[in-house]
Design a protein that fits this description.
It contains three helices and four strands. By secondary structure, the chain is an alpha+beta fold. 17% of the residues are buried.
């Protein structure tokens, strides 16, 4: 920082401005702490990811793919499924995702 001004009126102005800046920084810190706490709470209360997913199509909602839970290729219309539901879907001809290979995980060879 450069040297402060020598006269009292400018020193008072600088003091006021610095006080406003400090208030803005403190508010930004409070906001950032609140966001981090919300993210932490969200991560702690998030339900566990299902082990198996069945991805449905648009319209009639027929099953398109079976995925292992957490597959990066799952679509937005994927829903959790039990192991039996995933195995049954594969047996009924629903395609296994070629990335996560649920058929291999389940021991079902199509």
């Amino acid at each position: 920082m450069t040297d402060p001004p020598p006269d009292l009126p400018r020193l008072r102005t600088l003091e006021t401005w610095l006080g406003m800046q400090l208030q803005q920084v403190r508010q930004a810190i409070t906001d950032a702490e609140r966001r981090e706490a919300e993210q932490r709470r969200g991560a702690e209360t998030r339900p566990p990811e299902p082990d198996w997913l069945i991805e449905r199509g648009i319209g009639d909602g027929h099953a398109l793919y079976v995925h292992v839970g957490g597959c990066h290729m799952k679509g937005k219309r994927s829903r959790g499924a039990t192991q039996d539901q995933a195995r049954r879907a594969l047996a009924e001809g629903v395609a296994a995702c070629s990335h996560c290979r649920p058929d291999t995980e389940l021991g079902v060879l199509g």
